[in-house]
């Protein structure tokens, strides 16, 4: 790093499971390209529960309140004990209403070539509000399960404007709004209605606009994903479709995500803590590295983000060093060492 460069304070949450392994790998890569972050390390998830009985300790929240910027490993949600997902709580606490999930083919020769899609998922509303309860009947405490979803006009406007503005900034051609307004006429009808209004008011002539029902979208993503460009959808549909889209580019190990609000942004891999491979040293660190590249783009250092992406590309495709999930034999450390050589050689 250039010694005269101003450092940007940022919170670092290594997270649970494979989180610490892929975070260390990512930090090594960020150091090598000279990323200007000054990290404040914090615990959350199971690591937070173990250290201070809270999956989202106040010190972690305070740190993000100050830095307004975080790189986060996966957080395990403790089963039972009444804990809500720390990820959902973070998105609520910092009003991170936009979840941006770009998916780009990095390894040619897979089932799908040249995928270049961006999913924009509404992150604060819909069926993730947690308004749920059981109704007991005849001694069965869980005889009926109920969940209420809420989408607001303001929330829909915010995310749809975000998707259109993002598409224009990135010189994309088309935005597809994904809904289920034929069945959930209020909950997702308001989303579709708002998208149509905003397109007519502000974006007509600047971009193409298309509507699709979520089930048809899921099928078309498998049959012909190239017909899509930027997709925007409600919270639960976005959660499901983003994993499907990750499958088009080699799996969860390749899929980064950004949670963006007006006053803070948190960058993470789409995948979880992968308890089945934790401690084996074989996790693919690329998703978190690509999330760190998005974080560099976000702070105005797309030059460094591009450098990191190019080095990952060369390591995968010229050196052919790949972890097991991508069909290779490299450990996390071997992949990272090869990546460092590429960064230094550039
Ligand atoms: P998962 O994403 O952790 O794992 C699904 C499968 O993908 C597993 O076979 C795993 O080994 C593999 N995988 C995931 N990341 C990988 C990587 N980087 N390299 C190689 N293989 C990888 O999903 P799962 O098992 O459903 O969830 C485990 C825990 O993670 C749960 O507690 C869940 O709540 C949490 N979670 C946290 C998320 C976050 O913090 N953003 C997102 C999703 C789940």
What's the SSE blueprint?
Layout lengths: L7 E6 L5 H15 L3 E5 L4 H7 L5 H10 L1 E4 L13 H8 L4 E7 L11 E7 L3 E12 L2 E11 L2 H17 L4 E6 L9 H15 L4 E6 H10 L6 E4 L1 H14 L7 E5 L4 E5 L16 H13 L3 H16 L14 H14 L1
Parallel strand pairs: 1-2, 1-3, 3-12, 5-10, 8-9, 8-10
Antiparallel strand pairs: 4-5, 4-11, 6-7, 11-12
Helix pairs in contact: 1-9, 1-11, 5-6, 7-8, 9-10, 10-11
The protein binds 1,4-dihydronicotinamide adenine dinucleotide.
Q: Could you name the ranges where pLDDT drops below 50 across 5 or more consecutive residues?
A: none
The CATH superfamily of the largest domain is: Isopropylmalate Dehydrogenase
Radius of gyration: 20 Å
Give me the number of helical elements.
Answer: 11
Overall, the morphology is globular
Structural class: alpha/beta
Number of E-type strands: 12
Helix content: 40-55%
Q: Span between N and C termini?
A: 15 Å
Number of discrete domains: 2
Mean pLDDT: 95
Q: What small molecules accompany the polymer chains?
A: 1,4-dihydronicotinamide adenine dinucleotide
The CATH class name of the largest domain reads Alpha Beta
């Amino acid at each position: 790093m250039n010694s005269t460069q101003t450092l940007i304070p940022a919170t670092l949450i290594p997270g649970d499971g494979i989180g610490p392994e892929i975070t260390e790998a990512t930090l090594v890569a960020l150091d090598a390209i000279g990323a200007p972050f000054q990290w404040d390390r914090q615990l959350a998830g199971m690591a937070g529960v173990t250290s201070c009985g809270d999956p989202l300790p106040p010190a972690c929240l305070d740190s993000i309140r100050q830095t307004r910027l975080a790189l986060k490993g996966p957080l395990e949600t403790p089963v039972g004990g009444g804990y809500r997902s720390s990820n959902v709580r973070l998105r609520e606490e910092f009003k991170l209403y936009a979840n941006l999930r770009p998916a780009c083919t990095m390894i040619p020769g897979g089932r799908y070539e040249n995928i270049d899609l961006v999913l924009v998922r509404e992150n604060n509303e819909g069926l993730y509000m947690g308004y749920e309860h059981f109704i007991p009947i005849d001694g069965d405490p869980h005889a009926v399960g109920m969940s209420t979803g809420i989408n607001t006009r303001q929330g829909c406007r915010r995310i749809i404007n975000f998707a259109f503005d993002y598409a224009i900034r990135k010189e994309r051609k088309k935005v597809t709004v994904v809904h289920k307004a034929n069945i959930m006429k209020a909950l997702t009808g308001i989303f579709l209605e708002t998208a149509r209004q905003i397109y007519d008011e502000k974006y007509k002539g600047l971009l193409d606009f298309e509507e699709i029902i979520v089930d048809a979208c899921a099928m078309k993503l498998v049959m012909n994903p190239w017909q899509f460009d930027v997709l925007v959808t409600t919270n639960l549909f976005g959660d499901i479709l983003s994993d499907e889209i990750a499958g088009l580019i080699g799996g969860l190990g390749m899929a980064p995500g950004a949670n963006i609000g007006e006053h803070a942004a948190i960058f993470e891999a789409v995948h979880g803590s992968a308890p089945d491979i934790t401690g084996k040293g074989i996790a693919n660190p690329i998703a978190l590295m690509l999330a760190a590249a998005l974080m560099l783009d976000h702070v105005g250092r797309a030059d460094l983000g591009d450098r990191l992406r190019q080095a990952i590309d060369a390591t995968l495709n010229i050196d052919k060093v790949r972890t097991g999930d991508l069909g290779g034999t490299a450990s996390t450390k071997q992949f990272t060492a090869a990546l460092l050589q590429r960064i230094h050689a550039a």
